[in-house]
Design goal:
Helix content is about 25%, strand content about 25%. The strands form 3 sheets. It has a 7-stranded parallel β-sheet, with helices on both faces. A two-stranded antiparallel sheet has the order 1-2. Strands 7-8 form a two-stranded antiparallel ribbon. It has 7 helices and 11 strands.
Amino acid sequence: MTSAVAGAGRPVPAARRALLCIGASTGGIAVLDRILPALPADCPPVLVVQHILDNFIDGLVRRLDGLCAARVRVAADGAAIERGTIYIAPGDGRHLVVDATGSHCHLVEGPPVKGHRPSVDALFLSVAAVPRPVAAALLTGMGSDGAEGLRAIRRAGGLTIAQDAESCTVYGMPRAAVELGAVARVLPPDRIAAALLEVGASPGRQAAG
């Protein structure tokens, strides 16, 4: 359950290298309020795309930072991805993605994906390609943004989660992911944080079941 050698020849446990990501739209803020405060202060880094107008981002981040044990920050272009930090995509018309190693955030120009910018699919597809243990959750929202990216993460060996229909404000994005075969687990909000933290517990990237 260790990664490639890092530093002075010491293996890094997979759980220390894990990367978590979350996508949400309509009704997602209330669900993030339940998931993110349940993560410990030293949690793996978390990348979040919530479809929201840019002028609401700073207030959302300040409030979540007050609720969470981990730090909550607006993702910045080139920012190092660190444990104990939750990165929220800005709503300024750029997509939040990660670099090829999953060690830095990037904010990139580009057309809307599934009608959204930032797009959950843009984030998830970039995360699917990194050599780190990955877990991703797709929450309540209209449309299908995030479904294809979640499928890519599952195919790459990551753990994929969809919010259950009963707790969704709009059962659109999770439903699209389920229908694509992208989802390993369907869970209510109160069980999602613990499931995300299982990443890195199994050899390889992560058990899919």
